[in-house]
Amino acid sequence: MKYLEEFRNPDLARRLLDDIHATVTRPWALMEVCGGQTHTIIRHGIDQLLPDQVELIHGPGCPVCVTPLETIDKALEIASRPDVIFCSFGDMLRVPGTDRDLFRVRSEGGDVRVVYSPLDALKIARENPGKEVVFFGIGFETTAPPNAMTVHQAHRLGIRNFSLLVSHVRVPPAIEAIMRSGDCRVQGFLAAGHVCSVMGVDEYPELAARHRVPIVVTGFEPLDILEGVRRAVQQLERGEHRVDNAYARAVRPRGNPAAQAMIADIFEVTDRSWRGIGTIPDSGWRLSARYRDYDAEHRFAVTGITTEEPAACRSGDVLQGLIKPHECPAFGTDCTPRTPLGATMVSSEGACAAYYLYRRLGTPTAPLEATPVV
Ligand code: SF4
């Protein structure tokens, strides 16, 4: 496929790898922020092709994974109501709440539907005026614009039986929290290219300067990852800590102003709880006061639901890069994609799911079925 195969070219990958090997003189630890990048790295065995001195630490950028358990429980409570049609992207249906998941709610008679766009949920609301239609609006800066657009449309068209269960999170405060953590080993970041295609890069120079870490905006194909690593390692070896855009084919410095304006109109910044990590100040969005009527938490009075994370699941440590997934005692035994204890095992961007899918079952250096790019 054009514009895809070019970024999986083995000869070019080898050249980038040779350059990285020639540049590295000492150990460096880089965090890839996005779960999509983690899957590319594990699927293609990129971490195993890098010099031993370069460690890739998997970051918290999987939207399903960081949605806190209590938000899942709120979704389950709302979806169980007989007057509700609950709409979600498919990967949320298998995420375990305290005692069930959305599939279970559906099997028990709940009207839970998989949609491919929040606007599909709005269409369902127009077609079912006697029902309350709720869309599960989770994710990072990438999914915030379409979710904001849907609320904007509902307001413009006077559709009152639509609401949004919101759990939006933002990358820069997460980077701040990771760097402030006492256990942090991260020396540089591969920032999520799709997030920057929306928000631009203006939020990152101050972070890079204050924490003295290079932040390289990076894409999602194997060559994107290798180029991001190459640029980050070059900066580290030179003692630099700048923001560098290695995904210029998709990211403009100022991002997408129209999308940012839509977000600013519908949402306001708020503290957010991250699964297994806890509350990070200013790390999310909620509906602004003008649109609070579209907030499903208030409409269905579930704001009081609070839930403790299960002790057996160490997804918080995985999401902060403190352990690799196979270092969790439950990995592959009590916790598998069929019997998940945490969202990181079922999300399509979850690190635990990647390690299970690509057979990183034991030692970090011995994948059974990884497919190297070269
Ligand atoms: S392997 Fe399962 S229990 Fe362990 S951190 Fe991952 S999702 Fe949680």
UniProtKB/TrEMBL annotation:
One function term, GO molecular function aspect: carbon monoxide binding
Domain of life: Bacteria
Keywords: Iron, Metal-binding
GO process annotations (BP): protein maturation
Record InterPro entries: Hyd_form_HypD, HypD_1, HypD_2_sf
The keyword Metal-binding is annotated on this UniProt entry: yes
Family, similarity comment: Belongs to the HypD family.
Protein name in the entry: Hydrogenase formation protein HypD
Organism: Streptomyces benahoarensis
Gene that encodes the chain: hypD
